[in-house]
Each structure stands twice: as C-alpha cells, then as structure tokens.
Design brief:
about 140 residues, 3 helices, alpha/beta, 4-stranded mixed sheet, elongated
C-alpha cells in the first residue's frame, strides 16, 4: 500500500516582493540624496582656473545683501548667520588640535574686499591656511 501526497510542493520563488523592496529603497535614496547639500547658501563665486586639492576643516561664507548693504557670516554652510565678533572663537573651537588647520572662504561677488580681508586677518592671527573658494571657469 503506497501512500501518496496529495499536495505537491512547488520549488518556485516569487521575485515580485523583492523588486518592490528594491524600488522603495531606490526612491528613498534618491529623495535623501537631493536633501544633502554641503553649501546651502546661494553665492555667486568669482571664476578661476586654479583649483586647490586641500580639504578645509572649516568653511566661512560671506553673503552680501545689496538692498540693505549688510553682510551675513555663515560657518560650515549653516543657515543661521553668526555675528562677526563670534567668528574667531568659533573657528578656534572647531580647529582646536587639528594638524595643518585650513579655512575655506566662500565670498559672494558683490562683497567688498574689506570684509574679505577682515576674515583673512583672523586666519593670519591664528596661523591658519586660508583658501579663497572660486567657481571653475
């Protein structure tokens, strides 16, 4: 007397759930990658053909509001402006203990040279290397 199974086990695997998961992950990474922006400030940088390969530890942005002739200083691309009097202590705290401290200066085209030199003087007083960021030509 031979006993036979009535339900046969099929050896198939459905890939539809796996493709749904891959598409969801793809959409998630596409959305999150567009949210990451290193320099959130929109600055019109001057153009240059020289580029430096050094990676700065601190980035300072100076934005000029032409209508009111005022300036705002931003450290590391933050949206909240920092008063000029607080720039030096914040940079010193950020670069504390780093070897070969480097500061990147992102300046709008319309910013007067006096504002740029003020920040460069801070870097010189503290013996930091400074890079003036430009847009490639």
């Amino acid at each position: 007397m031979a006993i036979k199974r009535r339900a046969k086990v099929e050896m198939n695997f459905s890939m539809s759930s796996m493709t749904d998961l891959v598409f969801l992950l793809l959409i998630f990474f596409l959305i999150t990658s567009t949210l990451v922006n290193p320099n959130a400030l929109k600055l019109l940088l001057p153009k240059s053909t020289n580029q430096v390969n050094t990676k700065p530890e601190v980035s300072i942005s100076i934005k000029h509001y032409v209508e009111s002739n005022t300036f705002s200083y931003h450290i590391n691309g933050e949206q909240t402006p920092v008063p000029f009097s607080q720039i030096e202590p914040l940079i010193q705290a950020s670069l504390q203990g780093t070897e070969d401290p480097t500061v990147s200066l992102h300046v709008d085209r319309t910013v007067p040279m006096e504002q740029v030199v003020n920040v460069m003087n801070i870097a010189k007083r503290n013996q930091y290397r400074i890079i003036l960021a430009t847009a490639p030509e």
